[in-house]
């Protein structure tokens, strides 16, 4: 259902370097690159995540209640990628752990304050 999701940034090069390193740990690389946008994915038939400078020229801001969830297969991957995000300068928004029956996740905010999580089903 989801084709792609964009996260606003005010520093495209810094955001791109953050996501290159973080998503590279998942085996995901850049698929698209424009002056104001960089996108990562595993093929155009699958969802893509992108960072983008707002088209209207205004500063990017964080949406309250907005979050991108990135699915993994095992709790150990959630732990490792959450730690990698923090190592790259992200802020912890909730340590990895079980969040209800069969749902395991860890939350963080990227360098621009956008909220994301890594999760897996069947963990915890």
Beta strand count: 8
Residues in helix, %: 10-25%
Radius of gyration: 14 Å
Query: Approximately what portion of the residues adopt beta-strand conformation?
Result: 35-45%
Largest sheet: 4 strands, mixed
Morphology call = globular
Could you explain how this protein is built, in words?
With 124 residues, the chain is an alpha/beta fold. The protein has one domain (4-54, 66-121): Roll (2,3-Dihydroxybiphenyl 1,2-Dioxygenase, domain 1), CATH 3.10.180.10. It has helices at 12-24, 75-87; strands spanning 4-8, 29-34, 37-41, 48-52, 67-71, 91-98, 103-109, 115-121. It has a four-stranded mixed sheet, with helices on one face. A four-stranded mixed sheet has the order 5-8-7-6. The relative contact order is 0.21.
Question: What's the arrangement of secondary structure elements?
Answer:
Elements: E1 4-8, H1 12-24, E2 29-34, E3 37-41, E4 48-52, E5 67-71, H2 75-87, E6 91-98, E7 103-109, E8 115-121
Parallel strand pairs: 1-4, 5-8
Antiparallel strand pairs: 2-3, 3-4, 6-7, 7-8
């Amino acid at each position: 259902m989801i084709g792609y999701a964009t996260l606003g940034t005010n520093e495209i090069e810094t955001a791109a370097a953050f996501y290159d390193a973080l998503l590279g740990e998942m085996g995901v690389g850049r698929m698209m690159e424009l002056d104001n946008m960089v996108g990562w994915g595993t093929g155009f038939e699958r969802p893509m995540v992108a960072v983008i400078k707002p088209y209207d020229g205004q500063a990017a801001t964080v949406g309250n209640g907005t979050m991108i969830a990135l699915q993994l297969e095992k709790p150990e991957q959630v732990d490792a990628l959450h730690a990698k995000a923090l190592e790259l300068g992200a802020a912890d928004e909730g340590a990895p752990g079980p969040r209800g029956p069969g749902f395991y996740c860890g939350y963080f905010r990227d360098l621009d304050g956008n909220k994301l999580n890594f999760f897996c089903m069947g963990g915890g």
